[in-house]
Structures are given as structure tokens and as C-alpha cells.
């Protein structure tokens, strides 16, 4: 028997924020915010495509006008049909009104087609407008923005806000259509008899209010079960995704995970059944009240008919109007909740864009084009991450000259990668200054400076492109050059490995697509190193470039790195200290502090931290 465990609660998902706001706002708050949300949706549509937005708005209003015209034409038809005289005469008298009714109905149908066509064309343009604005921001913010947990959460919700923007625009126009339909019915009823407007409200409002209350109850219950749904989402992924499939089988976790699923799903099903009973009761009460009210309307119509205040045709038209009003009000009540919830999601998108502006890199006035690297100086540089008490790099000063190969070594967490990221301009120091050829990095044009630096990151990304494109990403200033790509691959011991792939350099490195291929960690590391070599930059930073390589590939890689010595500048970060023996200088960091520096022989003679680490590692090979 599998022991049941309760998964820890996960953080709220993006869609819960709009629903929580809906519950907290209540019905009065919802209607208070609707005008702003409607205006925002119209602004989005206007920015994306003015012509289609105007077409939808115009067609919606005209469709309402046609509804009013159709009801009045219906009344004229009924008046003629219910009048005295021979039937053929009454039918002939009703024909003009029938023609007008047919024209109104046809025009309204045509306007519906126009509206649908315009909305279908507007939707992808809204998507492009809001999504591109988001990606313009996320791809430009400083790297340290991603260190903040709140930024990651805000970005997740904002990315869903792009989808909500599309829905918001669509639902606002649907809401407007429902409102215009209601107004059309109201106008027609007032023309028939003003007293019937009050009767119409009495007949339709109870059902609408019950629907809104039922929606409120659904949102509230949905939020109460949010943790369960998040757990279900995790469990469903664990049982259906490729990445978890091997361990699920090797450890025999199928019954365990299915047991968790049954436990959580059972609780969720019970709650949903309770909700169904409450919603049914609420809507049933609304239906009963609405039915009684509707009966009262019919009694009122009968009284007016008996007293001769309205003709039979007007009473019949009023019945048709009540039915039309109920349909329009049903649309309105449904769309109110949809507009509000999606509006809250879109607010997350707008808020993210506003807050992200503070993370954009400052643009230096008159930024200079960087010259060829002569010297990098690091003066009193420190960096502190938001969630840590101690600095990752603490008051480090060093100088690197053109053509040197230097190594940053130290134990895990000593600050090597963080220091290298600051030298590369990927992170800004909390204090201190980094200079390129005597000028602070901020004085140089950031894009041009980065083109003079090539970085092979320890935590590299596996880009879902072909092998050739993956390498050519190292320099996109011109068209990819196959001989140059192959040369960079050979330097990283990747050429033969790529040639053995089904389509060589044209093999797609993503198994989720047809003919895509998986690579091992060591093979991806070769691709990453080749990408760095392809740029042939003034400064090459290699962060743990051989941690997953076999000995032969590692030797090829470090021969290529040593080949840069005296010609290009290289910063090497590695735990395999045998590979830094030939470095011009070795900088030893510990807890973010630079504790030693010198050549290999000097540091071994000094007998300090570097000598201890090197001796310990060498002993492992000799044992």
C-alpha cells in the first residue's frame, strides 16, 4: 500500500490574481471598474488597428439600431395583421412592414459578419502589439533584474496578461454588443408604451442578478481550491512529461503519484459538487423570482389590453422584446465577469512594463565606440545579490592586459563567475569600477562593447536551432560562414561529433521537433565553446568549459585556448587546476575576496590556498 503524502503548497498561479480581485471587489466594485477596463480595451484595439476597431464599434452600434428598427417593424406587421378586414387585405397591408423587417434582419446579420471578420483580423494584431512590447522589455532589462523573485513572478503574470489583452478586447466588444442590444429593446419598448420599460426591468433583472451572484460564488470557490489545482497540475506533468518519465519508471513511482492524484482529485471533485449545488440553488431562486416577475408583466399587458391602453399588436411585440432583452442581459452578465477578470490580468501586464522601466540599463550620453582591448582594470569592485547577507564579490581589484591568459580559481561560491560576469558587462557592480582601456564600462557603447567580448557560460542555454546556427549565434553581425563555423567547432572538439549527426551541421538540436536530436551534456558544452570561439573576440571568458568533457575533447579545447595566448585575452574559470598551469596569472578567490595571485610556480611556492587545492586534486590522480 502506498503511503499518501501531501505536497507542499505552491505559489499562486497567474490566473488567480484576476479572480481574487473579482471576489474582493464584489458586484459594486466590478461595475465601478468596468468603464476604465472598457476604455483600456478600446485603446489597445486602436493602437493595434484603427480601421478594424472603428469597423467593429460602428457595426456594433448599427446592429443595435437594426434591432430597435426590427422590433418596431414587427409591431407594424402585427398591427396590420390584427386589424379588421379580409385576411388578404391585412396581409397586403403588412407587406411593407414585412419587407422592412426582412431588411433589418438581413442588415443585422450582415453587420454580424462584418464584426466577426474585423475582430478576426484585429485579434492577431492585438497579440503582436502587446506581446512585442513585453519582449522588448524582457530582452532589454539588466541581468540583475532576474535575481529578484518578485520580478520573475511579475513577468510570469505579465506574459499571461498578453493573452488576456486579446480576450479583453474581444469580450469588451461582446459586452458592448449586449449593452447595445439592451438599449435597442428599451428604446423599442418605450416607443410602444413607457410603462412597459419598468415591466421589462422587473422581468429580466432577477435572473441577471442571480447569474452575477452565481459567478461570484464560482470565483470564490475556485480560489479556495487553488492549491489543489496547482498540485493537480504538477502531478499531471509528472505523469505525462518526457523529462520525468525515466525516474518515474526506474523508481516505480507510478502507484505513488497516481495515489496522490486520486487523493487531491477526490477532494476537488467533492468541492465542485458542493459548488454545483449552491450555484443551482442561486440560479433557481433567480429563475423563480424572474418567472413570477414575468407573469406579472403578462398580467400588466392583459390589464392594459382590457383597458384599451395598448393594442394587441403592441402586447405581442412586448413579449418578443422581453425575450430579446433576456438574451441580451444574459450576454451582458456573462461578459461583465469575463471583462473584469481579464482586465485584472492585463493590469499585471501594464504594471510589469511600468516597473521594468527601472531595470533598463542607463544610456550614456555620447557613448563611445570601444577600441581594441589593451587593458581591463577592476578597482574595488563588489556585488551583493538581493537575497544574500554577504557579498558575492567583495572589494576585488586586479588588472588584465591584452594577450594574457588569466585564470580565476577557488571553491564553489567563491565569486568567480560573478566577477567574470561583471567584467563582461553582464552585471553592474554594487560598488567599485571596471575600466576598459582606462574608461569605465558605462562610457562605452554597451552593444559595441559586448561584441568585443565572447562568453561561454557554465549554465549555457540549449538553443533549439541547428548545430550551425547554434555556433553562428556567437556573431550575428554578418551572414553565417560555414568554413568559419567548422573551424570554431574543430577548436572546441565538436566538428566530428556534429558530422556524425543525421544531418550534420543542419541537424536541429531539439527533440520536440521532427528530425530533432538530443545531445549529451558534454556535447552541448562543445557547441557552447564553439560558439564562443566563433566570435574570435578581444576578450574570451570560458566558465567551466570542460566540466562535462572527456579527456580527449578537453585536451583539444585547452590547446585552442592556449593558442590565443599572446594574441587574444582569455579569462579561464575552472576547477581542474591542471588546465591553468600555463596561465600568465592566476587569481584565487575565497568567499568573494581575492586572496592570492601569481603564476602557478609562485603560488605553489607560497603554499597558500591555491597550493592546497592543487595538491589535493593532484593526489586524487596519483592515488
Automatic annotation (TrEMBL):
<feature type="transmembrane region" description="Helical">
    <location>
        <begin position="165"/>
        <end position="189"/>
    </location>
</feature>
<dbReference type="InterPro" id="IPR039421">
    <property type="entry name" value="Type_1_exporter"/>
</dbReference>
<dbReference type="InterPro" id="IPR003593">
    <property type="entry name" value="AAA+_ATPase"/>
</dbReference>
<feature type="domain" description="ABC transporter">
    <location>
        <begin position="371"/>
        <end position="616"/>
    </location>
</feature>
<dbReference type="InterPro" id="IPR027417">
    <property type="entry name" value="P-loop_NTPase"/>
</dbReference>
<dbReference type="InterPro" id="IPR011527">
    <property type="entry name" value="ABC1_TM_dom"/>
</dbReference>
<feature type="transmembrane region" description="Helical">
    <location>
        <begin position="283"/>
        <end position="306"/>
    </location>
</feature>
<protein>
    <submittedName>
        <fullName>ABC transporter ATP-binding protein</fullName>
    </submittedName>
</protein>
<keyword id="KW-0067">ATP-binding</keyword>
<keyword id="KW-0547">Nucleotide-binding</keyword>
<dbReference type="InterPro" id="IPR036640">
    <property type="entry name" value="ABC1_TM_sf"/>
</dbReference>
<feature type="transmembrane region" description="Helical">
    <location>
        <begin position="93"/>
        <end position="119"/>
    </location>
</feature>
<keyword id="KW-0472">Membrane</keyword>
<dbReference type="Pfam" id="PF00005">
    <property type="entry name" value="ABC_tran"/>
</dbReference>
<feature type="transmembrane region" description="Helical">
    <location>
        <begin position="53"/>
        <end position="73"/>
    </location>
</feature>
<keyword id="KW-0812">Transmembrane</keyword>
<dbReference type="GO" id="GO:0005524">
    <property type="term" value="F:ATP binding"/>
</dbReference>
<keyword id="KW-1133">Transmembrane helix</keyword>
<feature type="transmembrane region" description="Helical">
    <location>
        <begin position="195"/>
        <end position="212"/>
    </location>
</feature>
<dbReference type="InterPro" id="IPR003439">
    <property type="entry name" value="ABC_transporter-like_ATP-bd"/>
</dbReference>
<feature type="domain" description="ABC transmembrane type-1">
    <location>
        <begin position="54"/>
        <end position="330"/>
    </location>
</feature>
Amino acid at each position: 500500500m502506498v503511503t499518501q503524502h501531501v505536497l507542499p503548497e505552491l505559489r499562486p498561479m497567474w490566473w488567480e490574481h484576476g479572480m481574487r480581485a473579482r471576489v474582493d471587489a464584489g458586484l459594486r466594485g466590478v461595475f465601478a471598474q468596468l468603464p476604465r477596463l472598457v476604455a483600456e480595451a478600446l485603446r489597445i484595439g486602436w493602437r493595434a488597428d484603427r480601421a478594424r476597431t472603428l469597423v467593429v464599434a460602428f457595426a456594433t452600434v448599427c446592429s443595435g439600431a437594426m434591432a430597435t428598427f426590427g422590433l418596431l417593424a414587427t409591431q407594424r406587421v402585427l398591427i396590420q395583421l390584427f386589424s379588421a378586414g379580409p385576411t388578404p387585405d391585412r396581409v397586403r397591408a403588412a407587406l411593407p412592414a414585412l419587407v422592412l423587417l426582412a431588411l433589418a434582419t438581413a442588415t443585422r446579420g450582415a453587420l454580424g459578419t462584418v464584426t466577426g471578420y474585423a475582430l478576426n483580423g484585429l485579434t492577431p494584431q492585438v497579440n503582436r502589439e502587446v506581446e512585442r512590447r513585453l519582449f522588448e522589455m524582457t530582452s532589454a532589462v539588466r541581468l540583475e533584474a532576474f535575481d529578484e523573485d518578485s520580478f520573475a513572478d511579475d513577468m510570469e503574470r505579465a506574459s499571461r496578461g498578453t493573452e488576456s489583452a486579446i480576450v479583453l478586447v474581444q469580450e469588451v466588444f461582446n459586452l458592448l454588443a449586449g449593452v447595445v442590444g439592451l438599449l435597442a429593446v428599451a428604446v423599442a419598448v418605450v416607443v410602444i408604451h413607457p410603462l412597459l420599460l419598468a415591466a421589462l426591468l422587473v422581468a429580466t433583472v432577477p435572473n441577471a442578478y442571480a447569474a452575477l451572484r452565481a459567478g461570484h460564488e464560482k470565483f470564490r470557490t475556485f480560489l479556495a481550491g487553488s492549491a489543489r489545482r496547482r498540485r493537480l497540475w504538477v502531478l499531471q506533468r509528472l505523469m505525462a512529461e518526457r523529462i520525468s518519465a525515466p525516474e518515474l519508471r526506474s523508481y516505480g513511482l507510478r502507484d505513488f503519484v497516481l495515489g496522490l492524484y486520486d487523493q487531491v482529485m477526490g477532494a476537488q471533485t467533492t468541492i465542485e459538487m458542493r459548488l454545483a449545488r449552491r450555484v443551482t440553488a442561486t440560479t433557481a431562486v433567480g429563475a423563480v423570482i424572474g418567472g413570477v416577475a414575468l407573469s406579472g408583466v403578462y398580467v400588466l399587458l392583459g390589464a392594459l389590453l382590457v383597458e384599451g391602453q395598448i393594442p394587441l399588436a403592441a402586447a405581442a411585440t412586448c413579449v418578443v422584446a422581453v425575450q430579446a432583452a433576456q438574451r441580451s442581459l444574459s450576454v451582458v452578465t456573462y461578459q461583465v465577469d469575463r471583462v473584469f477578470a481579464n482586465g485584472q490580468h492585463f493590469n499585471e501586464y501594464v504594471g510589469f512594463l511600468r516597473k521594468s522601466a527601472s531595470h533598463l540599463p542607463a544610456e550614456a550620453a555620447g557613448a563611445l565606440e570601444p577600441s581594441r582591448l589593451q587593458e581591463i582594470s577592476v578597482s574595488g569592485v563588489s556585488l551583493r545579490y538581493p537575497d544574500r547577507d554577504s557579498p558575492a564579490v567583495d572589494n576585488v581589484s586586479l588588472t588584465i592586459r591584452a594577450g594574457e591568459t588569466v585564470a580565476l580559481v577557488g571553491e564553489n561560491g567563491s565569486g568567480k563567475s560573478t566577477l567574470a560576469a561583471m567584467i563582461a558587462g553582464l552585471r553592474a557592480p554594487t560598488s567599485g569600477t571596471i575600466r576598459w582601456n582606462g574608461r569605465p564600462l558605462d562610457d562605452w557603447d554597451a552593444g559595441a562593447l559586448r561584441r568585443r567580448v565572447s562568453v561561454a557560460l557554465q549554465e549555457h542555454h540549449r538553443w533549439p536551432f541547428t548545430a550551425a546556427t547554434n555556433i553562428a549565434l556567437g556573431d550575428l553581425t554578418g551572414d553565417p560562414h560555414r568554413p568559419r563555423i567548422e573551424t570554431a567547432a574543430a577548436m572546441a572538439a565538436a566538428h566530428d561529433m556534429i558530422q556524425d549527426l543525421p544531418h550534420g551541421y543542419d541537424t536541429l538540436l531539439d527533440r520536440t521537433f521532427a528530425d530533432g536530436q538530443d545531445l549529451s551534456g558534454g556535447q552541448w558544452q562543445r557547441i557552447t565553446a564553439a560558439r564562443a570561439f566563433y566570435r574570435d573576440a578581444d576578450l574570451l571568458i570560458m566558465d567551466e568549459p570542460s566540466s562535462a568533457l572527456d579527456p580527449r575533447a578537453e585536451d583539444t579545447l585547452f590547446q585552442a585556448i592556449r593558442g590565443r595566448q599572446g594574441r587574444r585575452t582569455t579569462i579561464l574559470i575552472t576547477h581542474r587546476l591542471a588546465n591553468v598551469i600555463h596561465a600568465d596569472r592566476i587569481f584565487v578567490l575565497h568567499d568573494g575576496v581575492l586572496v592570492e595571485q601569481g603564476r602557478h610556480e609562485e603560488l605553489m611556492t607560497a603554499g597558500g590556498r591555491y597550493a592546497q587545492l592543487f595538491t589535493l586534486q593532484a593526489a586524487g590522480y596519483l592515488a
